């Protein structure tokens, strides 16, 4: 199973564009910061991840306020067939009430 869910803010977002096949798509960078427990020890977890919203979700994602906190659900995949870089594909997201990142 390849499913990832986390809370992050939208740090950067490109304009909505269309693939040659006509599918709407938006590229972005998401930032996450949280406190996690590992082996009984508190650990700060921070990362930035490249993300993409394609299809129906792209319109709603392109209108979401930058720096807003959201819970994202999606999956990881290679950036392209020959790449080793990963991209988070957004399947759904919802606003998170005031919380610190």
UniProtKB/TrEMBL annotation:
One of its GO terms (biological process) is DNA replication, synthesis of primer. SUPFAM superfamilies: Nucleic acid-binding proteins (SSF50249). InterPro entries: NA-bd_OB-fold (IPR012340), Prisomal_replication_PriB (IPR023646). Keywords: DNA replication, DNA-binding, Primosome. One of its GO terms (molecular function) is single-stranded DNA binding. Pfam families: SSB_1. Gene3D superfamilies: Nucleic acid-binding proteins. GO terms for cellular component: primosome complex. Involved in the restart of stalled replication forks, which reloads the replicative helicase on sites other than the origin of replication; the PriA-PriB pathway is the major replication restart pathway. During primosome assembly it facilitates complex formation between PriA and DnaT on DNA; stabilizes PriA on DNA. Stimulates the DNA unwinding activity of PriA helicase. Homodimer. Interacts with PriA and DnaT. Component of the replication restart primosome. Primosome assembly occurs via a 'hand-off' mechanism. PriA binds to replication forks, subsequently PriB then DnaT bind; DnaT then displaces ssDNA to generate the helicase loading substrate. Belongs to the PriB family. This is Replication restart protein PriB. It comes from Rugamonas aquatica. The lineage of its organism: Bacteria, Pseudomonadati, Pseudomonadota, Betaproteobacteria, Burkholderiales.
